[in-house]
Write a structure and sequence with these properties.
about 450 residues, alpha/beta, 5-stranded mixed beta barrel, 14 helices, 13 strands, about 45% helix, protease, membrane, NfeD1b_N, Membrane_assoc_protease, NA-bd_OB-fold
Length: about 450
């Protein structure tokens, strides 16, 4: 019994020893999530970064690396990305792989540490409007405050972050004298402690942190996210709305539904799809848009105009519900409406088109004499005939013409009974007579 028990104990210990290394290797396997931050910073990128960070948290990642190469973009999207980066408990490293300009610099400053590649740049973060001009003071004040906070939260000197966004700050030693925005090279960033180091590539960065053997997962933008990034771009939004409005306007001038209407509806569907995927629009905005369209169609059959106004209001409101940039949406709608009005003018002025959509509900037939319609009996054949008054004409009365009693009026004078008259003209039911002067012998 003792020998048998000893054999079992030895076997159990050996199995435990053999399995222990594999268990330890599996337990120590580290995971790094690499999130590309490329092209323009906008709401589509925000949706992608939110999804990537959420997945990294759920999968228990050890490190997040932002692979940054962007010229900048929308301030509101960058602000939301910054909030997401600071809210996660996972360590985040900004890997400036060429350019982190404007909104890209702000995103980098929200990371726990920053590393740059040789020849890369970070800075030049002035806020501008849609036309490329300096934004108003309110927007500039907000952006300067955001840049300052991003630098301070990781113990960096805020004057350099402010110099990236304010050309009035004078830093000539860094090539950013008064009137110029600060853009840091890797060496300058290291000197002012805006970078923890310079690395040649991602592998070198991972080795620096001891993640050379880690499982690296590079997040990829899904097709739907790529499409959403394109469709929510500030330049694409007014184009989609313009195509949508112009297509529907042209369709109103054609007898059957065709290419123009399909393009218009397709453009509007792409607008809502992009904003839905980007997390900007909800189903409520799409439902409201549909209700607006139904109300406008109903207005064609119900007089009054109130239903049509409510429909147009619902449509415009649905567009604003699908975005958080109300200025951009307002400008986009003005452009779209102007193009639609211009298209309607061209169709009527140069092509002589009329609204085919209203032909079925608007009476276009003219009931005139040329078409064979008369409002009453026409007695044109009486003109020139003579008769005698049966009653005095004051100025209306009755005359006898060819043994027919006819109601007539004079040209304004009073005529007595048994006076010879001549019918001068017939205007509908109005027959005008004039006294025939007596012939002198």
């Amino acid at each position: 019994m003792t020998i048998k028990r000893s054999i079992w104990m030895i076997s159990f210990v050996m199995a435990f020893i053999l399995l222990l290394p594999f268990h330890a290797i599996h337990a120590e396997k580290q995971t790094v999530y690499v999130i590309p931050v490329e092209e323009t910073v906008e709401k589509g990128l925000l949706a992608f970064i939110n999804r990537s960070i959420t997945e990294a948290e759920e999968q228990g990642a050890d490190l997040i690396v932002l692979d940054i190469n962007t010229p900048g973009g929308a301030v509101d999207a960058a602000s939301e990305i910054g909030k997401k980066l600071t809210s996660t408990e996972l360590p985040v490293i900004a890997f400036v792989n060429k350019n982190a300009l404007s909104a890209g610099a702000y995103i980098a400053l929200n990371a726990d540490e920053i590393y740059m590649t040789p020849g890369s740049a970070m800075g030049s973060a002035a806020v501008i409007d849609q036309e490329g001009n300096a934004a108003d003071q309110k927007a500039q004040s907000y952006w300067l405050s955001a840049m300052k906070s991003a630098a301070e939260q990781n113990g960096r000197d805020p004057q350099y972050a402010l110099a990236m966004a304010d050309k009035d700050i004078n830093l000539p030693d860094l090539g950013a004298g008064k009137g110029k925005l600060l853009t840091l090279t890797p060496e300058q960033a290291l000197d002012v402690k805006y970078s923890e180091g310079t690395v040649s590539n991602l592998n070198e960065l991972l080795e620096k942190f001891g993640y050379e053997d880690a499982s690296v997962k590079t997040m990829e933008v899904a097709f739907a996210e790529k499409l959403a990034r394109f469709l929510t771009h500030p330049v694409v939004v007014p184009i989609l709305l313009s195509i949508g409005s112009l297509g529907l306007i042209i369709e109103l001038y054609t007898p059957t539904f065709g290419l123009a209407g399909s393009m218009g509806i397709g453009a509007l569907l792409l607008f809502f799809y992009g904003h839905l995927v980007a997390g900007l629009a909800g189903m409520e905005s799409i439902i409201l848009f549909g209700v607006g369209i139904l109300l406008v169609i109903l207005e064609l059959f119900v007089a009054g105009g109130i239903i049509g106004i409510l429909g147009l209001g619902a449509i415009i409101t649905s567009f604003f519900m699908a975005t958080d940039n109300y200025v951009l949406m307002g400008v986009s709608l003005l452009i779209a409406i102007s193009i639609a009005i211009g298209g309607a003018f061209v169709m009527m002025k140069f092509f002589g088109k009329r609204l085919s959509a209203f032909k079925k509900i608007v009476l276009n037939d003219s009931m005139n004499t040329e078409s064979g319609y008369v409002s009453n009996q026409n007695r044109k054949e009486l003109v020139g005939k003579e008769g005698i008054t049966i009653t005095p004409l004051r100025p209306s009365g009755t005359v006898l013409v060819d043994e027919e009693y006819i109601d007539v009026v004079t040209e304004g004078s009073y005529l007595g009974k048994d006076v010879k008259v001549k019918i001068m003209k017939v205007e509908g039911s109005r027959i005008v007579v004039r006294q025939i002067p007596e012939r002198m012998i």
